[in-house]
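Students often ask what a 'structure token' actually looks like in practice. Rather than answer in the abstract, let us consider Group II truncated hemoglobin, a protein of 130 residues. Its sequence is given first.
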Amino acid sequence: MSSSATPANAYEAFGGETGVRTLVDRFYDLMDLDEAAAGIRALHPQSLDGSRQKLFEYISYWLGGPQTYIEKNGHPRMRARHMPFAIGESERDQWLHCMRQAVDETLPAGEWRDKFWEAVVGLADHMRNQ
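Now compare that with the structural description of the same chain:
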């Protein structure tokens, strides 16, 4: 894709595999290091490697990239997959705190990022089960 071409989707707008990987890695680095995210970090396994990979594949798919997540896991059913975890306003807010910083640091400003953030906030709120 030339630099003057309009991206076909958010996946392309964010730099494809490299851009999404950078976003997800920064998100989990923040979750792992930020005391403000201790509650949400405690819901994850000690090693975040599997979580990183799964979120990378999901966000890639969600943004219009490769269908790897669907091929491996089937329909996302995100709310059902998160039901075993107690997710209330505090957990949602901690998750969004880390994601907001990761988005701001790694994704290019503009309409694609704004639309992505709006969708992320809606998804995070939908995950609440407490």
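One point worth highlighting: The CA atoms of residues 29 and 110 lie 24 Å apart. Ask yourself how you might have guessed this from the sequence alone, and why that guess would often be unreliable.
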